[in-house]
Amino acid sequence: MKLTFLGADHEVTGSCTLLSACGKRFLIDCGMEQGRDIYENQPIPMAPGELDGLFLTHAHIDHSGRIPLLYKNGFRAPVWCTQATRQLCDIMLRDSAHIQEFEAEWRNRKAKRSGAEEYVPLYTMQDAIGCLEQFEGMPYGQRMPVCEGIEVRFTDAGHLLGSASIELWVTEEGKTVKLVFSGDIGNTHQPLIRDPQYLDEADYVVMESTYGDRSHGPRPDYIRELASILQETFDRGGNVVIPSFAVGRTQEMLYFLRQIKDQGLVKGHADFPVFVDSPLAIEATTVFRANISDCFDQEALEMVRQGINPIHFPGLTTTTTADESKNINFDDRPKVILSASGMCEAGRIRHHLKHNLWRPESTILFVGYQAGGTLGRALVEGAREVKLFGETIEVRAQIRQLSGISGHADNQGLMAWAGHFSPKPKKIFVIHGEDSVTEIFSARLRDELGIDAFAPFSGAEFDLLQGVFTREGIAKRIEKPSPVGTRVSTAFQRLVDAGKRLMTVIQHNEGGSNKDLARFASQIQSLCDKWDR
What we know:
Shape: globular
Helix content: 25-40%
Distance between the termini: 41 Å
CATH class of the largest domain: Alpha Beta
CATH topology of the largest domain: Metallo-beta-lactamase, Chain A
Number of domains: 3
Strand order of the largest sheet: 6-5-4-3-2-1-22-23
Number of strands: 23
CATH architecture of the largest domain: 4-Layer Sandwich
Largest sheet: 8 strands, mixed
């Protein structure tokens, strides 16, 4: 019975942990790294086809984004998550695949002209659709068996629609160990969704630490602050461009904007238009509406009972086609543009930045975390110029942040969540935080709560029955590879995974008829003869 740490270790994104127990192997999350990659993650130590399942905390791409890649390389086991997470992944993973294919098409047009090697997408739409067939939605709050010796329960983490902390009871060699994977712990008093729910007991906890070194400060009046930014910008004749995560943050911003319009807080521009320019955000909003009873908080539920749609209002326009998106920038009215991605790394937001960053009358308003190495982070940190679509754009617009707004708990919220366990866990493994933050938060757990806390590096392995590390992680800082090197490495790893899967298939055919086994062996030999060079 052991845990192996594989992703988001001394880093914020790319969450991935392996549980080996009861003769089975399960992943908890399998996310994509976003922004600057600091440490080299160790590979999953078996072929994806050898995994027995995956537990998913929530739909954000830094937790779910590599599941289609697993499927591409042979994964066919169940993915357990909440119903809302399953529905959100249905749109988010397809969108991620679309981005992969679009980038490959764009790169290959350039490669064809320069004679460079063909670029292969990380995965395709077919891979995304295929993996989604493996998803099994589960209700909150019910303890359910997964296999002999393992039971699971999902508890609302209050971070995103459908987000969960995952409790696992693992029984092996007559001993039961309870594990908790926090997922991303939500901030309190967020609009629409419930506050995070506390858990009472665990032997071992794997816990996020995104804001483990800082406080969000006193809760600001989001409505008044946002209204003030709108007023100042509209009075200058500019646009308020909001790079917003399509799932979660966009719906929260619509909630705030509805209240601003309802209360008439922007003078002289009462009918200001709001554009949601993100097909993904539009689909996600539909999922939000479908999960009102299971996931909305009491305030939002009361509005629904009164016949009020909390995320819809006059003047709201949603755009899906490319032409509709382009037309927004030919509309000379002061307006709000909500578009993804939230860190400005891809999607339509980059076009809106191109049209507004150089305008001193406009405001670029950030309303979420900006990972290191992203365009969003560069703008927040004061970049004077940026490059978009091969063109250098001078930054003359006002760059603002809506203070305090976050889907993540701050250090006080994280400490409250960890301090709720009684008795104290034997150990808390601190992950999903920037390098220094994981160490700061681990020290705080030790000093203030008296909990043994440790921030492992990728590759670390912990024996849950013996309570000791059997292998240390590798703190190897990554050197940025060339695009060609990345492609070769990825392709070779896929070949290795295919070889491991072949061995699994061979073992599964033990006891088959001699005729079938002989034919299978001949096919393998023919393949080897072809490639043995």
